[in-house]
Amino acid sequence: MPADMTFWAALLVGFFGGVHCIGMCGGIVGALTFGLPPEKRATPGQLLPYLLAYNLARISSYVIAGAIAGLIGAFGLSLIPMQHAQLYLLMVAGGFMVLMGLYVGGWWFGLTRIERVGSRLWRYIEPLGRRLMPVKTPKQALLLGFVWGWLPCGLVYSVLIWALSAGSATQGALLMLGFGLGTLPNLLLMGAFAAQLSALTRKKWVRWIAGGAVLGFGLYTIGSAIWNIQVS
């Protein structure tokens, strides 16, 4: 898949997977916004600097993780004397996206096991975030975003496996940037309209549409990899 298409594809996965992000990060965003003094959260416009700072840092953490994954993937692929190694890795990433779609749709929750593996590292990082709360300045929100960007998340892990197949640190970072920007609308709205958006994402039909979209893209990714293997 061309790099520009990969970016936009990752953005769409982030957007539809945002239903899951609201469940995972919504409490953090809520704590960030409702922890502010009333005069600083009276209107969405007053909340915006805090939400932008938090999400800018969160996405930056994704980009760093994507660069690391892309670098590891490029190094690993250089050691494997296999013509289709990158495409096989892309098939694995597509498989994880299928599992993520099932998770977002509420049909299967096996990915929570992967999140539990990540939680072992998270227990050492999470106290850093707690020290930054309650947030009183955009700078604190920025630092908090850097920390909470490493929160164990099956959706993020699925896209990171996709970044492994990107072929370079730059492409891995670009892929995760697209994914992070895709999650941005949902989490910005979560900060300003937390109660309404939380109620909406609890509706089965919303989760089914979002889960189906992520699942469908995973199947497309697998099919595309198989097609390229056959024709090459």
Automatic annotation (TrEMBL):
Q: Which residues cross the membrane?
A: 59-80, 87-109, 141-162, 174-199, 205-229
Q: Where does the Urease accessory protein UreH-like transmembrane domain start and stop, copy by copy? A: 9-220
InterPro entries found in the cross-reference section: UreH-like_TM_dom
What keywords are annotated for this sequence in UniProt?
A: Membrane, Transmembrane, Transmembrane helix
Q: Name one Pfam family in it.
A: DsbD_2
* Domain of life of the organism encoding this protein: Bacteria
Q: Which PANTHER family match?
A: HEAVY METAL TRANSPORTER, HEAVY METAL TRANSPORTER-RELATED
Write down what this protein is called: Urease accessory protein UreH-like transmembrane domain-containing protein
Organism encoding this protein: Halothiobacillus neapolitanus (strain ATCC 23641 / DSM 15147 / CIP 104769 / NCIMB 8539 / c2)
Q: What is the lineage of its organism?
A: Bacteria, Pseudomonadati, Pseudomonadota, Gammaproteobacteria, Chromatiales
